[in-house]
From TrEMBL:
Its EC number is 2.1.1.-. This is NOL1 NOP2 sun family protein. Keywords: Cytoplasm, Methyltransferase, RNA-binding, S-adenosyl-L-methionine, Transferase. GO terms for biological process: RNA methylation. It comes from Lactobacillus gigeriorum DSM 23908 = CRBIP 24.85. It is an enzyme of class 2 (transferase). InterPro entries: Methyltr_RsmF_N, MeTrfase_RsmB-F_NOP2_cat, MeTrfase_RsmB-F_NOP2_dom, Nol1_Nop2_Fmu_2, RCMT, RsmF_methylt_CI, SAM-dependent_MTases_sf. GO terms for molecular function: RNA binding; RNA methyltransferase activity. Pfam families: Methyltr_RsmB-F, Methyltr_RsmF_N, Methyltranf_PUA, RsmF_methylt_CI. The lineage of its organism: Bacteria, Bacillati, Bacillota, Bacilli, Lactobacillales. Belongs to the class I-like SAM-binding methyltransferase superfamily. RsmB/NOP family.
Length: 465
């Protein structure tokens, strides 16, 4: 049973009243609601999990628990995520071709949805300040088959220097006091205090001030937290409206079951538009605690010079330094040209660069990223070894978005588990050289068929079970 701090109970009894606060406190002692999303980038969206309980207002999202060792998860077909946490990236309403920033991105639940919405067009910058958590962010974006993302490991100040007025949409899922996670994390309960709430508010303002420097005139700021605290929710939004003249957007919802709205009376300004913000309370049985606001910048877009897609393409093609030699192109071609390549890889020979033998197609000109700590830029095709090329795991995930013929299907779970452990398998197959490896029709890795019918293992060591 969760032992709630008395200060917390007194606060929410005052804000919600006796009856509703008791509902909240009781709900915090119930099991969390688990859910998952299906990756709409994949050619095969058929999965084995139960889809009888869809989450209202969301597409391809269902209540249910998934197994992190199943081929659906390993191959990037599903993502486990709290139902309430699915709403910010969905209601951001990102369109293909936009430039999008997820400023506090790890572990990647919201980021993968943003990348999915871009559908391979435009740019996604996913940033995480924690050097530990950014690894999980990269892995999840890789698994999801997203090839137009830059993963960075910086604070908001460093990013703002590189990307002034650059992004069409910025999502700030801000670090917060975590009240909405109380029934999932005992640490969150033990760490809570009203002083910590105010510390978080100050940090949120600091992050948002840098985020606003990166937002294009006319752009969209999506602000979310996993806390109930008005100091970190409505009061932050009221501060944004006052400081930057942003307009709170009314969010389209066909079904409001389990969803509440913001409280203007919990702020000094008492802005009526705060009723357009969304609140997710655990007692409403949709998911965990979450707050969400979408705000529109009211400056005119013509204040910023837009770069046409053709000019962007020419800029990427003119990077120059690090371009592949004819010999390197030949090595890469022998491996990847036998696969069904997505449209964005049709010009890989002119776009690909070599950085310390890592062959990649940048999502953004590396010169533009100078001064930032870059974890990944675009799509890594693979690694150049001595007189040969080995395809990378990210490329396998991207290729799995399309039907493929150069694929070895593992026949049973024993083979699948052995491959996840890093073992070489004896396989009866007519294919030779590099192949995609799948189980239950879900591609999850590269392998290499040898002349003696062995499938050499290329599943990354860091991911092996």
């Amino acid at each position: 049973m969760v032992k709630l701090p008395e200060e917390f109970k007194n606060k929410y009894t005052h804000l919600l009243g006796q009856e509703e606060s008791e509902r909240l406190f009781s709900a915090l002692n119930l099991p969390e609601r688990k859910a998952y999303r299906i990756n709409q980038l994949k050619i095969d969206t058929n999965i084995s999990y139960d889809q009888s309980k869809p989450i209202p207002n969301l597409t391809a999202s269902y209540y249910g628990e998934i197994d992190g060792t199943d081929p659906e998860w390993v191959g990037g077909s599903v993502y486990s995520q709290d139902p309430s946490a699915m709403f910010p990236a969905t209601l951001a309403n990102v369109q293909p071709g936009e430039k999008v920033l997820d400023l506090c991105a790890a572990p990647g639940g919201k980021t993968t949805k943003l990348g999915e919405s871009l559908a391979g067009k435009g740019l996604l910058v996913a940033n995480e300040i924690s050097a530990t958590r950014v690894k999980a962010l990269r892995e999840n974006l890789e698994r999801w088959g997203i090839d137009n993302a830059v993963v960075t490991n910086n604070d908001s100040f460093a990013l703002a220097k590189v990307f002034p007025e650059f992004f069409d949409t910025i999502l700030v899922d801000a670090p917060c006091s975590g009240e909405g996670m109380f029934r999932k994390s005992e640490d969150a309960v033990n760490y809570w205090s009203q002083d910590y709430v105010m510390t978080c508010q100050a940090r949120q303002k600091e992050i948002l001030q840098e985020a606003m420097k990166m937002l294009k005139p006319g752009g969209k700021l999506v602000y979310s937290t996993c806390t109930f605290s008005p100091e970190e929710d409505e009061q932050i939004v009221a501060w944004l409206v006052a400081k930057y003249n942003l307009q709170i957007q009314k969010l389209p919802l066909e079904n409001t079951t389990g969803i509440s709205y913001g409280h203007p009376e919990w702020t000094e300004q008492k802005l009526s538009d705060l009723q357009n913000t969304l609140r997710f309370w655990p007692q409403n049985n949709l998911g965990e605690g979450q707050f969400l606001a979408v705000l529109k910048d009211q400056r005119k877009q013509e204040d910023t010079v837009l770069v046409s897609p053709k000019k962007q393409q020419r800029k990427r093609n003119n990077v120059g330094k690090g371009k592949l030699s004819k010999e390197e192109i030949d090595y890469v071609s022998k491996v990847i040209e036998k696969f069904n390549l997505p449209e964005q890889l049709s010009s890989w020979k002119t776009l690909a660069l070599n950085s310390n033998d890592h062959i990649f197609i940048p999502a953004l000109d590396p010169k533009r990223l100078k001064g930032l700590k870059i974890i990944n830029n675009g799509l890594e095709l693979g690694i150049m070894k001595k007189r040969r090329f080995e395809p990378g795991h990210q490329l396998a995930a991207v290729l799995s978005n399309l039907p493929q013929t150069e694929t070895v299907e593992l026949i049973d779970k024993k083979q699948y588990d052995s491959y996840l452990h890093g073992e070489t398998l004896q396989i009866s197959n007519k294919l030779n050289g590099f192949v995609l490896v799948s189980f239950q029709q879900k591609i999850f890795s590269f392998g290499k068929m040898t002349g003696n019918k062995q499938l050499k293992n290329f599943y990354p060591k860091g991911l092996r079970k």
